[in-house]
Amino acid sequence: MDMFFHAAMLALDPWAIGAVGLGTLVGLIFGSIPGLTFTVALALALPITFSMDSVPAIGLLLGTYIGGMTGGSVSAILLGIPGTPSAAATVLDGYPMTKKGEASIALGTAVIASVFGGMFSLIVMIVSVNLVSKLAIGFGPAEIFALVVFGLSTICGLCGGSMLKGLISGVLGLMIMTVGLDQMEGVPRMTFGSVNLLQGVNLLVAMIGLFAVPFIIEACSGHMETKHKRMVRVRAELPSIRLLLGRFWLMLRCSVLGTGIGAIPGTGGAIASFLAYDHARRTSKTKESFGKGELDGVIAPEAANNAVTGGTLIPLLSLGIPGDPATAIVLAGLMIHGITPGPALFMNHATEVYGMYVAVAVAYVWVLGLQLLGIRLFVHVLKIPRDLLAIGVLVLCVIGAWSVRNSVFDIYAMAAIGGLAYLFIALEVPITPIILGMVLGPTIENEFRTAMMLSGGSWDIIFTSPLAMIFLGLAALIIVLQAISELRVRRSNQQKVNA
Amino acid sequence: MTDRHKDLIFGGLLLGLGLTWTGLVWSTIPPAFDAYSIGPRAFPLTLGFILVGLCMVLLVHRAAREHDNSGTDVPAETDTALSRRIMWLPLALITVEICAYGFLLDKIGFLLATPLVILAILALNLRCGKPKVLVGMALGVTVGCWLIFDKLMGIHLASGSWINLG
Tens digit of pLDDT for each residue in A429-446? Predict the structure, then answer.
């Protein structure tokens, strides 16, 4: 308990509260601008945390993540364009509400539902992380290796339409992380005599290149935008207590759904929000009003997609497995600050973990305040032309890449990786698996080599471990299920063409 | 360019990369000291083989399909809302501009390099000729970033080796 109070003191320090608030504001702004996802915001925010203490630093990142997840609803409701994929389901009823002149109540209710979902998932997270960590404390190198293989298998869920391209992308990520000095024997690998490459490709530089540079190229590909978007005059209006109480069970059910889906690596907010929307429609007495401006159609996806935030943090903190690109960046942030998520997290960094819990709660308080009071700011932000915004993002990218090691080499690396990422996206090759490969690559190699060293080169250390076999089995199951699902979609499309 | 052509080019290029990678790994990284341990070469080599294998599967799969764009493809969810058409000129311009920005940062520092690059992007990429926008963006972004990052947050911004404004 003392440790918790100590952590709470650290997280409730004015500096830390300010950092979480800044992160939340940045996340809300980036999340509300279509095309500029909060993953970009996280990649840009990471270098800023270098000079900060661990609790405010992680608070800033979590604030950005949570703010971004919530911010997507602003443009979804006001413009009919989701700011983030997870807000796509909110468009279905949010935008019709705006057209009916009910934008204010839609925005206000979306904020309340988001905060409810987020706080619910925080409680589940607090209960689960320690429990899962305790279960995982006995893991040896073989089990951790199998666990990371399981984590990598979630590439199948992150690869969009083509599993094959997703796997290629994931392998590329793993390959990139083998460049540099071998961590176990200190042998240079694929460095071609370059001193800059001895430290390998920096994860943060790669993330900035992969997520931010393609946006800049796309936004700067034409002439300047001269037309401003037409925007209604809005404010966020709080729904009545009666209205909220009447929707309490819906919010609760959707929060459970969102937390559960978030806890499964490779899923994410988009899936959770669409499932929640479908659930709300199916269980509603007024099914016919969905799609025409039904408030339940805003509450359900918003509660679910914010509940995902706590859900994704469960495998991240307890097992070290990031479920989506945003949590992969949070993981990188944790590692930069010397916090290694996984079974030993509570033994080594209990204060920081409790600090994170408090920071998540603080972030949701910020979300509530900023969304209700500052909604007009976001409306103005949505008016900024994308190309001018991209110039600002470019400068932030360069500052971020430079600040990693004060090296121009990192800026060149960012440009090269960004250019390749743009080509990949244009060729419909998913780039998220690259990040997953880069994040999990060093662990999978080190744990496998350690396991082999311990067993004298015998694979029995893996095949005789029930836990390792369970994880490997689950990984195989995920791959097979994804392959079947892809085949089904292909057959269904073929039948449509034939018909 | 059709989806099939795109996949064939992508698969072909990465197959080349995989083969080159495998060859370089084999020739430049030493193997393990003994037969019982996994050396520094094993992982990159295995990854090279896997990449080659996956690319061959992709190439065979796409080459075997006679009817292109029959609508049977699973629509891919790309990570951002980018269009599917590759815009080579903006790609080349931005890549060169970022590299030039890096070079200039090292030589003339953040305070001089940033407005120059912003002016270049506004003029070359966005064809902007409005003096207000040009000056406003160049000075606004530079001074804003300098104040926030350097003065407020204490993050070191580049100071040039040729010209150093601090």
Answer: 888 788 888 888 888 999
